[in-house]
Design a protein that fits this description.
Blueprint: E1 3-7, H1 11-22, E2 27-31, H2 34-43, E3 48-52, H3 60-70, E4 74-78, H4 83-92, E5 96-98, H5 104-115, E6 136-140, H6 141-144, E7 154-159, E8 162-167, H7 175-183, E9 188-192, H8 193-200, H9 218-236, H10 243-260, H11 264-272, H12 278-297, H13 303-315, H14 337-344, H15 346-355, H16 362-369, H17 393-406, H18 417-428, H19 434-442
Parallel strand pairs: 1-2, 1-3, 3-4, 4-5
Antiparallel strand pairs: 6-9, 7-8
Helix pairs in contact: 2-3, 3-4, 9-10, 9-12, 10-12, 10-13, 12-13, 12-17, 12-19, 13-16, 15-16, 17-18
């Protein structure tokens, strides 16, 4: 059992912490301030120190630094300091943080985690700690800040080794804390991967051997997520787009792809988009991003909708993998009849490929299949009219037409934004969906 020093100037809180700890057979000493704690620590050794995030006598970071330089005690911070202080505290060697309104299990878990280290916590190098990035995923701040209660625990990321809980499940994120995060440029919090799957109603099931249960190795998954995030930023950001909205879409899509890529076969399908040229992958990421952006501008707020649009955008052209890539950079009038038929078959090929992948929801398959349809019934492959299309297909259709004009590839030159709008309207006219076009234009005003 641990010998614990509690530094707390509010007697009731100190007594509550002590009561919870003694229930688990730990021994406790309560002291009112950090200056007095320094004097005690010079004379007596403690396994763990629990101290408030705010000290009235000795600045918190200064006290942490003193403890780490002069003792072998582990430190748990009670309460959440400002974000910058939390990061600095962790870098100095703080072992854990617990909420002001902590639950006993949260306190016990922090104590147990310290006990598992077997060596002084402050001597543990980052290299020896577990990278936690594969266990958490982003959830947008604006999605959780207005809820009366959140169904999941919420965290901020201090480093790849430490995530700090800022809100317990079934509680509201305090408005002042959310506003503080926003002012500091924090657009996203984090939740566990399992909770994110529940949020977007997603699971991978192996069906008829089409998808295995093989998991992507953690280090490989981390590299893939980081690479995806970088590619989205470099290849899909356009000058003039609302930066906050773009950040929202980028972080959501990165999280979605990260959850998907945990399965080895699903990751392989994503990587196949980049197997012949980076143009297809960049285009697919672009359609996913701008589909999410258009949906948000239209007033959609559902994570499930954004997840489906992201997957549909990502996989809508997967059928092109079965067609020689040079045909797609050839002007359509120059294609032979046979080549045109082959090119036009890629939506049906997409449908067949995705239908074999059990992790792709059926409505996502439909969205991907319909990405070359239009509002007049003159599109392909089925010539569906506006009333026959899936409601979300109109978003993917518009995003696809836009992205193929504005994202540069080795084979094409990107159009200026306003020229792309004019080109779309000139060529397609009333075959375009007016509502989604209006939303798209509004992203750049």
């Amino acid at each position: 059992m641990a010998k614990v020093l509690i530094i707390e100037d509010e007697e009731e809180i100190g007594n509550l912490l002590s009561l919870d700890l003694r229930a688990k057979k730990h021994t406790t000493t309560i002291i009112g301030d950090s200056l007095s704690a320094v004097q005690l620590l010079e004379a007596e050794k403690f396994d763990i120190i629990i101290t408030s995030a705010e000290s009235r006598t000795m600045p918190g970071l200064k006290f942490i630094e003193w403890v780490k330089n002069n003792t072998k005690s582990a430190i748990i911070i009670h309460g959440f300091p400002p974000l910058a202080d939390a990061k600095a505290a962790f870098e100095l060697g703080v072992d854990d943080f617990i909420n002001n309104k902590y639950q006993a299990d949260e306190l016990y878990s922090a104590i147990d985690n310290i006990g598992k280290k077997h060596i002084p916590p402050h001597a543990t190098s980052f290299a020896k700690r577990e990278n936690l990035d594969t266990q958490y995923t982003r959830i947008l701040l604006e999605e959780v800040r207005s809820k009366e209660k959140n169904d999941f625990d919420l965290y901020i990321r201090l480093s790849e080794y430490k995530y700090l809980k800022v809100c317990n499940r079934n509680m509201a994120l305090p408005a002042e804390r959310a506003e503080s995060f926003k002012k500091k440029g924090v657009h996203a919090l984090y939740t566990s991967k399992d909770d994110f799957r529940k949020l977007v109603n997603f699971s991978i099931k192996a069906i008829s051997g089409a998808v295995s249960n093989k998991q992507t190795p953690k280090d490989e998954l981390i590299r893939f997520i980081e690479s995806t995030n970088d590619t989205i930023l470099k290849s899909t950001y356009l000058n003039g787009v609302d930066k906050e909205s773009f950040t929202y879409a980028r972080e959501f899509l990165t999280s979605s792809i990260g959850v998907l890529a945990e399965n080895f076969d699903a990751k392989a399908l994503i990587e196949s988009l980049n197997s012949k040229s980076d143009a297809l992958y960049n285009h697919s990421l672009g359609v996913a991003i701008y589909a999410i952006l258009i949906a948000r501008k239209l007033g959609f707020t559902s994570s499930q909708v954004f997840f489906k649009l992201g997957l549909a955008g990502l996989f809508h052209d997967i059928g092109k993998n079965e067609i020689p890539p040079e045909l797609f950079w050839k002007s359509r009038p120059l294609l032979t009849a046979q080549e045109r038929t082959l090119v036009d078959s890629h939506p049906d090929r997409t449908y067949k490929i995705l239908s074999k992948a059990s992790f792709v929801p059926t409505d996502v398959i439909r969205l991907a299949h319909e990405h070359h349809e239009d509002m007049k019934g003159t599109g392909r492959p089925r010539g569906l009219t506006k009333g026959e299309l899936h409601p979300l297909s109109k978003i993917v259709i518009t995003a696809n037409l836009f992205v193929e004009r504005v994202i540069k590839t080795r084979e094409t030159v990107a159009m200026p934004i306003q020229q792309a709008f004019k080109d779309m309207e000139t060529i397609y006219g009333d075959a375009l969906d007016l509502e989604t076009m209006t939303a798209l234009k509004a992203l750049f005003t």
